[in-house]
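Quick start: read one record
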Amino acid sequence: MKSRTRLFLTCLSLFIFVACDDEPDSNARGSRGGGAIKVVTARVEMQALVDEIQALGTANANESVEIRSRVTSLVERVAFEEGQIVKAGQLLIELESSEIVAGLALAEAALSESMSLYKRNESLSNTQAISASNLEQLLASVRVNEALVLAAQARLAITRIRAPFSGRIGLRRVSPGSFVDSSTVITTLDDVTSIKLDFSVPEMFVTVVKEGMLILARSIVYPDRVFKGRVASIDTRLDPVSRAVLVRAIIPNADGALKPGMFMTVDLQRDRGDVLVVPEQAIVPEGTTQYVFVVTNDVVEKRAVILGRRIPGFVVIREGLVAGESIVTEGTGKVRQDSRVEVIGQTSGTESNADF
């Protein structure tokens, strides 16, 4: 009985072994030319790659100043209208200056007298009727009176407040007869022919932002409009709290649409040129090496590649592929070197909604 049982088990084992050995290996058949493995491929293509960074910024006037008086006085005349475009040097405010005018006249009279006295005694110096030291004292008096005249002229000049640069006047905050001093804001002056847009960029993007880099800015005031500008300067220091660097861009504003103080969103763009881009699922890692399966005449070649930066859903190929080649994107787990394949679908290597 035991012999019959051992014989039965031996026959059963042989049957199972033969049955397993006869199980078809689809990968082997694909490699030896039996049945082709069905795969989906993508065509490797060149694609323009642009770095984009989004930030929040505040618009500032190209030049901006609060107009104030340098002296304490009364407003005699207002020479501008609110919202008026003025030129550099144009008169804005006249202050009461009668006392200063009188002081200037006194200084000019003293200068005239000292100059006349000096000239009379200078003619006598040749006859030695006056000593050289006395003549020098008279000349010194002339110099003092000249300085007093210049000082009086300077005090008179600052009673005429003029525009320091060309721009648009803001609201008027004084009237004729108003008492003003250095703390009084008379009005504001802004040059908005171009806008300085200040925004912060995180530390990790410091090497990406360069002077001259193109930016695209938007405001909720103009939801359908994009304002183009360029990076003008980058701060030399990072904020130790936010770990961000302040960047300033210049945006042309010929129509005056942008106003100082506006909140804007900023898109920075950096063109990195054309690069080879493939779908991320085509990459097969093995250890520290990355591979793709290249399909040529329905035969697979396993090829090592060097990767560049990653984009959502895609990866840049630095070395190992050329434009126009086809690579396996679906079915990478079934193919091997020299496998025969049947391509059941092919897409563009950049066929996606991804924003490069």
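Residues 27-47+275-348 form a domain with the conserved putative lor/sdh protein from methanococcus maripaludis s2 fold fold (CATH 2.40.420.20).
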